[in-house]
Specification:
The chain is an alpha+beta fold and 392 residues long. Helix content is 37%, strand content 15%. Strands 1-11-10-7 form a four-stranded mixed beta sheet, sandwiched between helices. It has a three-stranded parallel beta sheet with strand order 3-2-6, covered by helices on one side. A three-stranded antiparallel beta sheet has the order 9-8-13, with no helix packed on it. It is globular. The structure holds pyridoxal-5'-phosphate. Pyridoxal-5'-phosphate binds at residues 61-63, 87-88, 90-91, 149, 175, 177-178, 199, 201, 212.
């Protein structure tokens, strides 16, 4: 039996093909390992240029980026922040760190992203808007910001969301942590003039081990992000601080990895897309399998290739398929428990009181191996295992 027949195929692992070793070595050789250093600046400049934003501020994680970004746009204790129910937990936690509450909204069924239509309907029918302040009538709390999460590499409908933000004078903080390189109407996420957050965690499209980025076109916001993420030092010699800041800056060592990874990003994006294309071709005619869709106005990066299993048509449900794949040494994973069902988020309000689309997607979806380094031979093993399962 060839090695490739039993080799464990993980969901998503990092890829280091470029200048990671020489750049990290340079940090060690020069002693610039902490949060000051030329790689931090270089990483920020190149990242901002890549996404098409004026400024970028490198931070310790994507979660830290979200925390600071919400503070930048004025979220305060007791506020509500509109965010996706179908997401990893980090954006909901970021609102909580500030003493605010996430206000969860369902996903739409076409592209599985935040349902802007439901938010609009909620604002029109269940909120009061006066003096520039939007209030959730049921809770009496102020709705302070929109925090859309571009999940799985695909953008939220930003055009519709921006119209809503303009109408109700709400800032948009984008959680683009899963969607670096994705485009909304031919423009990369991060370049739409709002505050956007990225992550370089180990399972993301590019990694610094751990890390994140805040991008914005507003210099004042970028300056404030830098200030808050470096312990809000007003006088670094005399240690004077007028505000409570955070130790959230990215280190030069991490940024060295970031510079090297960014040089390879286009190559990695092309690899991810080729993987998605192969899966789509393989499952196009398989009964009961639906491959995630791409909106005509979007270019997804297919951070993870995710399929939706119709239990009756396919012959088994998503979890049974996950166990069968595991037996074939293939890692597949469900999407996140929807936030409105998460024990950690009890007490957070929910638009319309329910998120039925998120619940069905959570029940039916599985993400498939999507590493940049996934070879066609290994990917064929995944496709074969799924079509075998469909014949049982
Ligand atoms: C990965 C991720 C984050 C945060 O990333 P970290 O860098 O791990 O803190 C935030 N939001 C979403 C949706 C993510 O998938």
């Amino acid at each position: 039996m060839a090695d490739t027949d039993r080799e464990w195929i993980p969901l998503a692992v990092p890829e280091f093909r470029g200048n990671e070793w020489p750049y990290v070595k340079e940090c060690l050789d020069t002693g610039w390992v902490s949060t000051a250093g030329s790689f931090v600046n270089r990483f920020e400049e190149r990242f901002a240029a890549y996404v098409g934003a004026k400024r970028a501020v490198a931070v310790a994680s994507g979660t830290a980026a979200l925390h600071v970004a919400l503070r930048l746009v004025g979220v305060e204790p007791g506020d509500e922040v509109v965010t996706s129910a179908l997401t990893f937990t980090a954006p909901a936690n970021a609102a909580r760190y500030l003493g605010a509450l996430p206000l969860f909204v369902d996903a739409e069924p076409s592209y599985w992203q935040l349902d802007v239509g439901k938010v609009r309907h909620f604002f029109r029918t269940a909120c009061d808007f006066s003096g520039g302040v939007l209030t959730n009538r049921e809770t009496g709390r102020r709705i302070r910001a929109l925090l859309p999460v571009h999940i799985l590499g695909h953008p939220v409908d930003l055009e519709a969301l921006a119209a809503l933000a303009g109408e109700y004078r709400l800032p948009i903080v984008e959680d683009a942590t899963e969607s670096l390189g994705a485009e909304h109407r031919q423009r990369r996420l991060g370049g739409h003039g709002h505050v956007a957050c990225f992550s370089f965690n180990g399972n993301k499209i590019m990694t610094t081990g751990a890390g994140g980025m805040i991008v914005t076109d507003e210099p004042a916001l970028a300056d404030r992000a830098l200030y808050l993420t470096t312990q809000a030092k007003d006088d670094p010699v005399e240690y004077v601080h007028r505000e409570v800041g955070y130790n959230y800056r990215l280190s030069n060592l991490h940024a060295a990895l970031g510079c090297a990874q960014l040089e390879k990003l286009d190559e990695y994006l092309a690899a991810r897309r080729a993987i998605a294309d192969r899966y789509r071709a393989a499952f196009g005619s398989l009964r009961g399998v639906e491959f995630m869709a791409e909106a005509p106005w979007a270019r997804s990066i297919f951070w993870l290739s995710t399929i939706r299993i119709d239990r009756d048509a396919f012959g088994m449900d998503s979890r049974a398929l996950m166990h069968r794949l595991a037996a074939e040494r293939i890692q597949a994973r469900p999407l996140w428990q929807p936030m409105h069902l998460s024990p950690a988020q009890v007490g957070a309000p929910v638009i319309d009181g329910a998120c039925p689309v998120a619940e069905v997607l959570h029940r039916d979806c599985l993400s498939l191996p999507s590493s940049v380094g996934l070879t066609p031979v290994l990917q064929d093993r995944v496709c074969h295992a799924i079509s075998q399962a469909s014949r049982l």
